[in-house]
Amino acid sequence: MSRSKHDIHKFDPYIKFLGNKNAVIVFAISMGLSGLLLSVINSEWQWFSRFGSLITIAGLLLISSPSFVKGIYLSNASAFGFAERDEDGNTMVTNEDDRKIGAKIFTGIIITIFGTVIWGFGDLVGKLC
Question: Which of 30, 31, 35, 90 could form a disulfide with 48 if both were Cys (CB 3.0 to 4.6 A apart)?
């Protein structure tokens, strides 16, 4: 069964990776070790704290992963067995509302990522100038 183009969001290939448990765990451990290493090298433990914000991102991604594991639109499809055909004859299981909800979830994930990075590293911008 072919998926309808209406059920596929342009960022699906990227967002699905963010829900990969092993990749997210590796990211979290890498960030923790990076922060620890920078703190030891520089004798400034603020680095470990800052990298903690990146570990928070990893946790939020895993918590949010059920919302996008099938794809931004398909994870919220309410049609299930009552699919329609799109103009190309492919099965379409989402409706307009499902796609709007999926887009909102995706936007929320992006905002969470940017907000957490700013939270953890925002005060360093002044030191770069």
Answer: 35
Per-residue pLDDT tens for 36-76?
999 899 888 888 888 889 999 888 888 777 777 777 666 65
Asked whether the beta carbons of 48 and 36 are under 8 A apart, the reply is: yes
pTM: 0.62
SS (H, E, C) the chain: CCECHHHCCCCHHHHHHHCCHHHHHHHHHHHHHHHHHHHHHHCCCHHHHHHHHHHHHHHHHHHHHHHCCCCCCHHHCCCCCCCEECCCCCEECCCHHHHHHHHHHHHHHHHHHHHHHHHHHHHHHHHHC
